[in-house]
Write a structure and sequence with these properties.
It catalyses: alpha-D-glucose 1-phosphate + ATP + H(+) = ADP-alpha-D-glucose + diphosphate. InterPro entries: ADP-Glc_PPase (IPR011831), ADP_Glu_pyroP_CS (IPR005836), GlgC_bac (IPR023049), GlmU/GlgC-like_hexapep (IPR056818), NTP_transferase_dom (IPR005835), Nucleotide-diphossugar_trans (IPR029044), Trimer_LpxA-like_sf (IPR011004). Involved in the biosynthesis of ADP-glucose, a building block required for the elongation reactions to produce glycogen. Catalyzes the reaction between ATP and alpha-D-glucose 1-phosphate (G1P) to produce pyrophosphate and ADP-Glc. Pathway: Glycan biosynthesis; glycogen biosynthesis. Belongs to the bacterial/plant glucose-1-phosphate adenylyltransferase family. By secondary structure, this protein is an alpha/beta fold. Helices cover about 20% and strands about 25% of the residues. It has 10 helices and 28 strands. The strands form 7 sheets. A 7-stranded mixed β-sheet has the order 5-4-1-6-11-8-12. The protein has a 5-stranded parallel β-sheet with strand order 14-17-20-23-26, with no helix packed on it. The longest helix has 12 residues. The radius of gyration is 22 Å and the shape is globular.
Length: about 375
């Protein structure tokens, strides 16, 4: 069945810089925003953009991610003829191995793409927070008749070393590409969103497969090769909200953006809904001893203490005389009585003992805590940081 455009969603990254958050789950499966997981944003963009043929490439710690995605029902991708397909590493006749990089993951699934005989292939990352109409990107790609179009956005200069940096002329044509430079000459960053002409990408992937010196990566290998061979590479400037939550600090910052309405306004758009699973917990309860200021409180939460500038996922309980400030509490967290938490991220189902006191200064990165941490402080009846 022919499709104009096939989407390949890269969701197998380890996410090392997220530390404890990705110890047991893939980065795209990390909870975000009170009721979502990170990958929900990209999948929702796909269905809102009528991109119905989606291959999700998984690898690292896929259990929670696969369980969450299922057959794609929350995103209307549980379809008979196209829809969502999980593409895990598989054994070939010569033994096979893990995906060696982002480009290698797509190369090993050429057979999946070919069955739809597409003109274009959209490459996405499953670990960014943003809303985008991919049809606008595709139309731009067609209008400039590019071999590849890269979606780009301006980032703070101090963060340029985290990204592929783009240089373009007045006609959107890319003149240079630097992968995570130490001394960037531009702050125009690749968003990890590419549209290729399929015949051009297929040729590049096949050549790259046979290169023993390649990292099998789009940013390190495929894009520089296309630039070297003078393929037509164009940029698509994006002006909306976008956040690569690839570090603890950026993950925490994105949640604080929610509380300042910058991102929350997007999540409340009725014409561009971010879809996810709904666990159908009862409505939140703020008891007579509880107070909430500038915070997101999800269903199933019971607040008997003070919550300020924080995000509480579903089914979180806050005990009496406890103060939770500038923090992110994942589903099922239980906070005892007389607890103080400031600038911390508490992972799913953790139990915070009574009289715990953990406050992280603004000069330090927020910390991530789980049940592995709290038994140590239960022994001494509390801890000051």
């Amino acid at each position: 069945m022919k499709k104009e455009c096939v989407t390949m969603l890269l969701a197998g990254g380890i996410g090392k810089r997220l530390g404890q958050l990705t110890k047991n789950i893939a980065k795209p499966a990390v909870p975000f925003g009170g009721r979502y997981r990170i990958i929900d944003f990209t999948l929702s963009n796909c269905i809102q953009s009528n991109m119905h043929t989606v291959g999700v490439l998984t690898q690292y710690q896929p259990l929670a991610l696969n369980k969450h995605i299922g057959v794609g029902k929350p995103w209307d991708l549980d379809r008979m003829e196209d829809g969502l397909t999980i593409l895990s590493p598989f054994t070939e006749h010569d033994g096979g191995n893990w995906y060696e990089g982002t480009a290698d993951a797509v190369t090993k699934n050429i057979h999946f793409i070919e069955q739809y005989d597409p003109e274009y292939v959209l490459i996405l990352s499953g670990d960014h927070i943003y809303h985008m109409d991919y049809n606008e990107l595709l139309n731009h790609h067609k209008s400039v008749n590019a071999d590849v179009t890269i979606s780009v956005i301006e980032v703070p200069w101090e963060e340029t070393s985290r990204f592929g940096i783009i240089h373009m002329d007045d006609n959107y044509q890319i003149t240079n590409f630097e992968e995570k430079p130490n001394d960037a000459k531009s702050n125009l960053a690749s968003m990890g969103i590419y549209i290729f002409k399929w015949n051009v990408l297929k040729e590049c992937l096949q050549l790259d497969r046979n290169n023993p010196y390649s990292n099998k990566d789009f940013g390190k290998d495929i894009l520089p090769y296309m630039l070297l061979k003078r393929k037509k590479m164009c940029a698509y400037p994006f002006s909306g909200y976008w956040k690569d939550v690839g570090t603890i600090q950026s993950y925490w910052d994105a949640h604080m953006d929610l509380l300042e309405n910058q991102l929350l306004l997007q999540l409340n758009r009725k014409n561009w809904i971010t879809y996810s699973h709904d666990n159908n917990f009862a409505p939140q309860l703020i008891t007579s001893t509880g107070s909430v200021y500038q915070s997101l409180i999800n269903n199933g939460c019971i607040v008997s203490g003070l919550v300020e500038s924080s995000v509480l996922f579903e089914n979180v309980h806050i005990g009496k005389h406890s103060n939770v400030k500038n923090s992110i509490l994942h589903p099922g967290v239980r906070v005892g009585h007389h607890v103080t938490l400031d600038r911390v991220i508490i992972q799913e189902d953790a139990i915070v003992p009574d009289y715990t006191n953990i406050s992280v200064p603004l000069s330090e990165e927020p910390i991530v805590l789980s049940n592995e941490y709290f038994p140590e402080i239960q022994k001494v009846g509390g801890m000051n940081r």
